[in-house]
Amino acid sequence: MLTQYSKIALAVLLAPSLSYASENDHHDHHEHDENNIEKIQVTASRLGRIVNESATRTEIINSEEIQEKALMRPGNISMLVAETGGVRVQTTSPALGSANIRLQSLYGRYTQLLSDGLPLYGGQTASIGLLQIPPTDLANVEIIKGAASSLYGGSALGGVINLISRTPSDELEGEVLFNATSKHGQDITTYVASPINETTRASLTAGVHNQEQQDLDNDGWLDMAEYQRATLRPRLYWQSDSDANLYLTFGAMQEEREGGTEDGATVPDGNPFKQSQDSLRLDSGFIFEQPMGDTLNLNVRGSAMRQEHDHVYGFVKENDTHESFLLESSMSGYTDQIAWLVGVAYQSDHFDSQDFSEFNYTYQVPGVFSQVDYEASNDISLSLSGRVDWHSEYSRQFSPRISMLYNPESWSIRGSYGKGFYAPTPFIEDIEDAGLSRLAPFEDVEEEQATTASIDISYAFDSVETSVTLFASDIDNVTELEVINPFDMTSDKRVRIVNAPGQSEIRGTELLVRYRWRDLKLTGSYLYTDATKQSDSGFGRAPLTLTPEHSAGAVIMWEQHGSHLVGFEAYYTGTQHLENNPYRDKSDAYWHLGLLGQITFDGVSYFLNAENLLNVRQTKEESLLLPQQAPSGRWTTDIWSRNDGFTVNAGIRVQFGH
C-alpha cells in the first residue's frame, strides 16, 4: 500500500510539472484542506512536493496576489516581489532606476531569478533585468530563501525566485491590459493561450511600455528615467499519449533607457552627465520529461541567453555582451518513503566588453547534484541535497543543504541549513551604476561563500495562518569596492574590487499573520534584521548599509471574484545606515501607503490605483547629487527611500475565454 508520500511522488512523476493536468496551473486548480490552506505543488525544490508538506520551505505568491500586483505595476515584477516578507527590492542606480532583490538582507547579486526553473535572464541577472520582466503571464512565484546552491549552483547563494508561467487550458483564453500613470507612463500587455491540437498548446505574451523623463525637484537631474521597451515571449507545450512532455520558450526584449542630467543641465563640475543603457536580450529554453516505467522519470533541460548593452556614462561609452548557457539532465524516482534525484549539469557564463577587454571572462562550470526526500513518519520529513561544481576559475565547490519538517496536526516546524558559493564578477552595485572605466582589473579575488540557517514555525486554525521565522547568515569574502588612492586624481583607475575582511553576519526574525473572513483578506508582516560587518578599523562591528533594522507591512483586501476589489496597504521601512553620503549617516524611517480599486462587468475590469499616498520622496530632504564625482565615477548618493512621489495609475483589463 502506498504511503501519503508515495502517492504525491507518483503524481509528480506521472503528471509532471509541465503537464496540462499539472497542479502548477493554479489559476484553475486550487485545493483546500480542513484548515482552508491552499495546497500547491512547488517545483523550485526539484522533487515537486506540496508546499505545506515539503521539508524545504518555499513561499508562494499565488495567482490572486499576482493579479492584484499586476494592476499596480503592469510593466515589471518589482512590486510583486517587494511586498513579500523578508524580500527587499533595492534600487542600485538612481540614474536608471535599476534594482535587485535581497532575500533576508543577503546581497542582491546572490539571488537567482528563474523562469519555469530555467535561468533565462542569465546566471547573474543584471539589476536592470528586474524592471524588464512583466507579470502578465505568471501563475505564481516560488521563493526559497537562504543558500540554494545545492539545487541551482553558485548563482543561488542567497536563494531562488522562480517565476512560474500560466499553463494553457483546453480553451482559447487571454487578456489585454491598458494602463497609464500620472507620471506620464503607459503600458499595454497581452496574453493569449490556446490549444493547437490534442497534444499541443501554446501561449503568447507581449507588451510595450513607455515612461517619460521626470525631474520632480527641478534640479536638472532626472528622478525617473525615460524608457521605451517592447517584450515578446511565445511558449509551446506538448504532451504525448505516453505522458512524455516538452516545454519550449523563446523571449525577446528591447529597451532604450535614459537618465542623468536633462537637456541643458549640468552636474556640479559644470558638465552634462547623461546616463543611458540600450538593451537587447534574446533567450530560449526547453524542458523535456519522460516517465521511465512506473517509478522513474527522466528530465532534460537547457537554456541560452544573449544580452547586448550599449552604455553611456557621461562622456564614456561602453558596449558589451553577456551570454549564459545551461544544459542539465536528471533522473528521479521514489519508493514508499523516499523520493530521490540525481543529475549532471553544465553551465557557462561569458562577458565580452568591446571597450574594456581586461574585464572579459568566461566561467565554465560542470557539476553533479543529488537530492533525497525521506518521509520518516506521517509527521516528520527530511530533505538532503548536495552539489559539486568544478568551476573553471574557482576550482571545486561543494554545496550541501539539509531541511527538516515536523508537522503535527495544525503545526509546521521547519529547520534548514545550507552552504554555497558565488563566483565574483565586476558587477557589484556601484559598478553596475558607474561602469568599468575607473575600475582596476581583478587581483587575487576569492569566491564569496555563505552559510545560512533558519527555523520556521507555522500554525493554522480556522481562517488564520501564523508563522515566525528565525534566520542567520554568515558570508565570507564579500566583494566590495575599494578606493585605490583617494589623493591620486591623475590615474584613470581609481577603484578596485577586493574581498572584505572578516564576515558579514545577518540575524533576523520574520513574523507573518494571514486572516481570511468571507471576502475579506488581511495580511500583516514584520521583519527585524541585525546585519553587521567588520568595521573599517578592524575592531568591532559596523552595520550593513541600506539594511533597515525594522520593517513591517499590512494589507487588507476585500474582493468578490468577477465583481469588485478594494484594497489598502501600508508598509513601514525603518532607518538605514548609509555610506559615502555627505548629507547624512542614517536615513529617515518612512511609510508607503497605497489604495487600489477595481470593478468588473462581463470580463472587463476597470481599475484605479494610488501609490505613495504620503508623497514620500528622498529629494524632498536633500539632493541626490554629490558635491563632487565619486572615485568610482558615480554622481549620486544611494537611494534609501522612494524617489517617485505620489503616483496614480488607472486602466482597463479585458479578459476573454476560459
Query: Could you say what the CATH architecture is?
Result: Beta Barrel
What is the average per-residue confidence, as pLDDT, rounded to a whole number?
89
- Stretches where pLDDT falls below 50 for ≥5 residues? 1-38
- Total number of helices: 5
Instruction: Tell me the overall shape.
Output: globular
- In total, the number of strands is 33
- CATH topology assignment: Maltoporin, Chain A
Span between termini: 38 Å
Structural class by secondary-structure content: mainly beta
CATH class: Mainly Beta
Alpha carbon gyration radius? 24 Å
- CATH homologous superfamily designation: TonB-dependent receptor, beta-barrel domain
Strand content: over 45%
Structure report:
By secondary structure, the chain is mostly beta strands. It has a single domain, classed as TonB-dependent receptor, beta-barrel domain (Maltoporin, Chain A, Beta Barrel), CATH 2.40.170. Helices cover 5% and strands 52% of the residues. It has helices at residues 4-14, 63-72, 78-82, 149-152, 429-434, and strands spanning 31-32, 38-39, 59-61, 87-91, 99-103, 111-115, 138-145, 159-165, 173-181, 185-195, 200-211, 226-239, 245-260, 274-292, 296-313, 316-334, 338-353, 361-375, 380-391, 395-406, 411-422, 448-461, 464-476, 479-483, 495-499, 503-517, 520-534, 541-543, 550-560, 564-573, 590-601, 604-611, 647-657. It has a 22-stranded antiparallel β-barrel. It has a four-stranded mixed sheet with strand order 3-7-8-6. The radius of gyration is 24 Å and the shape is globular. The relative contact order is 0.13. Residues 1-38 have low confidence and may be disordered.
